[in-house]
Write a sequence for this structure.
């Protein structure tokens, strides 16, 4: 593998890790975001690149895996963009109308991009990751409990 390929693979791995962290932040409760930021204190001051705002996004769906896309409906979303004192920019989108939580999520994104703070951010997000995994396991268990096995009885006449 040449140097360019190694750099590309490293860049892709970093992008996937950031996407995973932002997925956690997007699903975290506002109180969890506040506790994560408290655990990372002191947090550098953040200035708004764009004030946090609430708007609508169109949700698209598909019938089956290859059906034609259709507009399912609209959902409210809050978005924020911040820049930390160190120069890192953070961006976040969260379903709902909580612009404050979107700003906190953007701050966490900016902190995650600072290589010296990345491990601390990941460690602070561990309780959120555990809660979401437990919730997913609960839903999967409830779904598995409703599974129906169909079988055919062989009649003796055949």
């Amino acid at each position: 593998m040449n140097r360019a390929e190694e750099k590309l693979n490293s860049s892709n791995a970093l992008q996937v890790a950031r996407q995973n962290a932002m997925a956690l932040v997007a699903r975290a409760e506002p109180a969890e975001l506040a506790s994560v930021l408290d655990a990372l204190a002191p947090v550098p001051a953040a200035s708004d690149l764009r004030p946090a705002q609430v708007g609508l996004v169109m949700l698209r769906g598909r019938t089956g895996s290859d059906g034609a896309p259709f507009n399912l409906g609209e959902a409210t979303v809050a978005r924020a963009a911040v820049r930390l004192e160190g120069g890192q920019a953070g961006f976040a989108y969260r379903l709902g109308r909580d612009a404050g939580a979107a700003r906190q999520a953007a701050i966490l994104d900016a902190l995650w991009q600072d290589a010296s703070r990345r491990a601390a951010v990941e460690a602070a997000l561990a309780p959120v990751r555990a809660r979401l995994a437990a919730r997913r396991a609960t839903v999967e268990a409830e779904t598995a409990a409703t599974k129906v096995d169909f079988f055919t009885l062989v009649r003796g006449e055949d």
Residues 150 and 156 are 19 Å apart (CA to CA). The helical segments are 3-27, 30-39, 99-113, 118-124, 126-145.
